[in-house]
Amino acid sequence: MQKLTPGNFDNVKSCKYEVPDYWTIGEVYERLIEDICAENEYTSFITDVLTQIYTSWISKAISNYNSDFFYQSRQYIFECWKEGDIIQDAG
Fold first, then answer.
1. In 10 A of CB 81, how many CB atoms?
2. Residue 89: Cβ within 10 Å count
């Protein structure tokens, strides 16, 4: 059995990129929710839209900080939502 080596382990400090905080993550969700509601006139059914987003594949994609999906443009994320999957580069 291996023993843990004592030390100072700060994974966030040693990250190459800045880890997004919950406000930044929330902005990505907010923009997607606004775009879905605007296109579909869902303003009276906002809870349905929230449930759809947070229980779908896109929530996992947004929360995967090892990919660049979170950092993509608002329009790209919305187009992926409409497509139902991450749109691959055709080039």
1. 19
2. 4
What is the C-alpha separation between 38 and 31, in angstroms, rounded? Answer: 10
- pLDDT tens readout for residues 36-64: 988 887 667 888 888 999 999 999 999 88
Task: State both tokens at 31.
Answer: 């923009």
CA distances from 21 to 5, 26, 70, 84 (A): 29, 9, 12, 26
On whether the CB atoms of residues 53 and 29 are closer than 8 A, the answer is yes
Torsion angle (degrees, nearest 10) of CA 69, 75, 81, 84: -80
- Whether the CB-CB separation of 78 and 71 falls below 8 Å is answered with no
| pTM for this predicted structure | 0.72
